[in-house]
Amino acid sequence: MTPTSRRTFLRNGLILGTGALLGAPALRSAYAAEAQTMVLYNGQHAKTTQALVNAFTKATGIQVEIRKGGSTQLANQIIEEGSRSPADVFYAEESPPVDALAEKGLLTRLPESTTKQVLPGYTSKNNEWLGVTARCRVTVYNTSMVKASELPVSIMDMATAAWKNRVGFVPTSGSFQEQIIAIKLLKGRDAALNWLKGLKEYGQIYNGNMAAMRAVERGEIATALVNNYYWFIVANEIGAKNMKSAIHYAGPKDPGGLITVSSAGILKTGKHQAAAEKFLAYMVSQAGQEAIVDTVAEYPLRPGVKSPFALKPFDQLNPPDVTPAQLGDAADAVALRREAGLA
What we know:
Shape: globular
Structural class: alpha/beta
Helix content: 40-55%
Number of strands: 10
Number of domains: 2
CATH superfamily of the largest domain: Periplasmic binding protein-like II
Radius of gyration: 22 Å
Order of helices and strands: HHHEHEHEHHEEHHEHEHEEHHEHH
CATH architecture of the largest domain: 3-Layer(aba) Sandwich
Number of helices: 15
CATH class of the largest domain: Alpha Beta
CATH topology of the largest domain: D-Maltodextrin-Binding Protein, domain 2
Distance between the termini: 49 Å
Strand content: 15-25%
Oligomer: single chain
C-alpha cells in the first residue's frame, strides 16, 4: 500500500489494526472501493454534473470525486499540474479548454465505440474529446421594448449606432469567445475586431450571462447575446407564460446562431483509465444523456434522446458552418478582445 493509500484508509477509519485486518474481507473491500473511484475536474454547471454523476454511480458502483472550477481555470490547472494531476476526466462547459489540453498532448484517444454515439461533427479531429451536449447562441429580447420584426437577421448589425444602449453582452463568457472565433473564421479577423469595437462603443457589458438575461427580463436593456438555456432557466423559475422576454434565433448560417458544445476528455496521466472510459461512455449513452438534459435546456448529441424542454428542433437551427473542432482553443479571441479595448 502506498503512503497516500495508507493515509486514506486511516482517515476513513478502515484500518483498526494491521494484524487484525491482513487478508480480511474488510481490507479487500477497501482496496476495491479505492480502485473504483475516479476524479472529475468539472467546469460544467454543478447541478447538471451532479445529476450525471449520481446516475453513473448508481449504474456502475464507481464513485466520482468532483473538483469544481471554471473551465479555463481547470484547464490551466491541469497544464500546471502536469503528470502530478489527479484528474482522470475533464468536463468543460465549452470545447476550447478541452481542445487546449488536446493540443498539448494531454488527452487520450477515445474509443470509436464511444465517439460514434454522438452526431457527426461534434468530436475533435483526432477523437481526443467529444461533445456531450450542445447549445446555440441566441438573442434574448424584452417583448415590451423591441418587436421581433425589428431584430436584425445578423448579429453583425447589432454592433452599430442603431442599437446603442440596447444590446447586452458578456465579453468574458466562454461561448462569447467561441462566437468571436466563428466570426473570424466566417468573415475574417478585421470583421471580428470591428464587431467587438462596435459592441464596446454601443453595447452594455455584463459580468455574467444570467445577469444579462435577468436584465432583459426586468426591462433594463432591450436585448442580450447569450446561450439559449439561460432563457429556460428563468422561465423554469417564474413560468414561461409570465416571461417578459423571448428568444430570437439569428438568420440562416449567421454567427449569431453558432452551436457550441460542453465537452469532455480523458487525461493520459489519469490513474483510473478504465473508470474514466466507462464515465465518458456513460455520458453519451441513452441514460447519461437523459440525466444531463433533464437538468438543463441543452440539446442531447446522442440521436433519439429527447429534451423535456420546449427547444427549437435541433435540425431547424440552421447554424453557421463552423464545427466545435474548428473553433480550436479559441486563443485568438482574447487577443481580439484586448485589441478592441475589452478586458
